[in-house]
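[job 4471] stage=fold_predict status=RUNNING
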Amino acid sequence: MINSEPNSLTIRVATTADASAITDVINQAFRSAENFFVKGDRLDQTEVDRLLSTGTFLLAADKGVMLGCVYVEPESAVQPIRAYLGLLSVDPDQQRGGIGSQLMDAAEDHCRKLGCAFN
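[job 4471] inference complete, writing structure tokens
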């Protein structure tokens, strides 16, 4: 877990128990960004469950309330190892407060620990 001061934001690896909350925050974030050309949800919980089996979601939470997430999937078949980072999502009420930047920093750190190469 990564603690960040002065607030109580923590970033941790998601578990399957987080799938519903992940689905909600992604759909809320993308709805506010894409609703002028995409109708409906970005993804459903079945897709989040599938992604949890192939990669990792990092979650940002404050006092137990999930505020955002980012998905990391290593591509170990590619040498040097690289990773796909995507679905960066922050609750629309919390956007523009640095949570997305903290999630990306944590995702990059996670990739370094996996031995991924950066270009």
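[job 4471] summary: Residues 1-5 have pLDDT under 50 and may be disordered.
[job 4471] exit 0
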